[in-house]
Amino acid sequence: MSDYDLKFEGLMPVVVQDSETKEVLTLAYMDGEAYRKSMETGLMHYYSRSKQRVRMKGEASGNIQEIKDVKIDCDNDSLLFMVKQKGAACHLGTKSCFREIATPAVAGNINYSLEVLLELESLIAKTKNTPRKNSYTTELFESGEENIKKKVGEEAVESILAQGKDRIVYETADLLYHLLVFLSYENIKLSDIMDELSKRRKN
């Protein structure tokens, strides 16, 4: 991402997330100088509103944040940095600046997050890289591209022909699994699909 892509009108909010655990570490702010220094050094720099200056994260504590990836939101007015955190991210000595204050009710006990899909995607990728004995996923990868595509097609047909909610849910779960195997085979991530859907939403 070049500086040309960014329009700093004052300060830009920055969400910082652990690249390994995916835990949100902090919300901070950057100006143009902080962004440039971050990208030039590979270490997070922020604009301190209290000190009125740009500072490197961990310049005093040693708890630096090594940049692994950076994304910008659809309105070009906030950033997401994925970092490798050394030590505590919070000045209070905790890993994250965020702490739980309440437990919300879960509508119908249904988890609407992508967590399950992301965990499955990760497991499939791990199996792809490290084949396991007696693993159906390993068998699929070893069977080759054409067979994987065939299985996706078969599961798609079974899903649309299924009768009743329970059967549709069951067959759709099979379809999603086989689709994730196909995407992994083609080295495509769910995030790539989400990015494409996000572009379409803007249009």
From TrEMBL:
Protein name per its UniProtKB record: Histidine biosynthesis bifunctional protein HisIE
Major subcellular location class: cytoplasm
A GO CC annotation given for this chain: cytoplasm
Ranges that cross the membrane: none
Cell compartment(s), UniProt: Cytoplasm
Region (Phosphoribosyl-ATP pyrophosphohydrolase): 117-203
Entries under InterPro entries matching the protein: His_synth_HisIE, HisE, PRib-ATP_PPHydrolase-like, PRib_AMP_CycHydrolase_dom, PRib_AMP_CycHydrolase_sf
GO biological process, one term: L-histidine biosynthetic process
Enzyme Commission no: 3.5.4.19, 3.6.1.31
GN (gene name): hisI
Segments forming domain Phosphoribosyl-AMP cyclohydrolase: 27-98
Keywords assigned: Amino-acid biosynthesis, ATP-binding, Cytoplasm, Histidine biosynthesis, Hydrolase, Multifunctional enzyme, Nucleotide-binding
Organism per entry: Ferroplasma acidarmanus Fer1
UniProt pathway annotation: Amino-acid biosynthesis; L-histidine biosynthesis; L-histidine from 5-phospho-alpha-D-ribose 1-diphosphate: step 3/9; Amino-acid biosynthesis; L-histidine biosynthesis; L-histidine from 5-phospho-alpha-D-ribose 1-diphosphate: step 2/9
Record's catalysed reaction(s): 1-(5-phospho-beta-D-ribosyl)-ATP + H2O = 1-(5-phospho-beta-D-ribosyl)-5'-AMP + diphosphate + H(+); 1-(5-phospho-beta-D-ribosyl)-5'-AMP + H2O = 1-(5-phospho-beta-D-ribosyl)-5-[(5-phospho-beta-D-ribosylamino)methylideneamino]imidazole-4-carboxamide
A molecular-function term among this protein's GO annotations: ATP binding
Residue numbers spanned by region Phosphoribosyl-AMP cyclohydrolase: 1-116
Enzyme's top EC category: hydrolase
Annotated family: In the C-terminal section; belongs to the PRA-PH family.
